[in-house]
Amino acid sequence: MSGKCEDQFMKTFKFYRARVPPPPLSKVIDVDNAAFADKITKLTFDNNVEQDDRLELLGLKPFAHWPVFTIKKHPGLIFIRNPFTSHGQRYWIRKCLEKYPRKPNKTNIDIEVILEDWWETCYEGHKCNIQLLKKLRWTTLGYHHNWDTKEYSEANRNNFPSELSELCDVVATYLGYNAFRAEAAIVNYYHMNSTLSAHTDHSEINLEAPLFSFSFGQSAIFLIGGEDKSTVPSAVLLQSGDILVMSKEARLCYHAVPKILSSPSSPWNDNVEDIHTKDVPKFRYIYEKDVIVDMNSNQNNGNWSIFNGYVQESRINVNIRQVLNETQSRL
Ligand code: SIN
Questions:
Q1: Which pTM value belongs to this model?
Q2: Per-residue pLDDT averaged across 136-164, rounded?
Q3: Which single residue of 22, 91, 130, 282 has CA 20 to 30 Å from 290?
């Protein structure tokens, strides 16, 4: 590819990455802002779509409260504007910090030191080990993405968290992807000066299955272009709770995060007095009891405060893929 072709994505990336002066945000598509109404199409789903009895449990609002859009210039890119309750946001943020970086999952820290439990190690002294806290950049779940070979393998695979796979299943089924299976995830941890450079996700055998991307904490400018870097990318504002689905024509498009932005609000702290406490005599799902215990614990602002401290200054993105074809159960 010629340097000239590559220019367009890189040019926009550099424009939004700038620190001094900070970039103007007037062209960053914000689905909440009526000024961008001509750039997006609101998708309506059949109102008869059955409520899923996992919604409340997984911290999701009823389907009728899910604003779903596509961005006209990027067919296949589906945007769901924060379908999470505040409890739901707290639950998923906490999972990403407390549970997902635990062994046997892999993290970027492994090349330096193998920590059984990163979060616990950060807090084991009298005060938080900020240096260690800031060191976590990614953790991988299920089939672990190999950053060098870019290949998945059976030898490099652990169980995919059941609650996360259920979350994806609810979203996928709602959008009509009934056969989707969550098999690999990368959880990205961003600080206010972090960026993620342009890339495509093509290591999966199954490139037809969509990719689901969940954002929590601080906001981001997300760039989405075409299948090569010659297309001028669009900039989209991603806020806490937003879900992006890269399907069909958008599945193999270049994307990047040139900037993290301070979120003007903290939706994970809204109306948390709406107690979720549930006394369920019989659990329907294997993860249900754990979810209820965690949701209840997160209502206590004392328990929640260390997680709150993290997301007030960071962004978390959970990126989920199906690796195998429908008929396969292993590589
Ligand atoms: C990714 O593409 O891997 C992450 C995108 C994001 O952080 O929104």
A1: 0.95
A2: 96
A3: 130
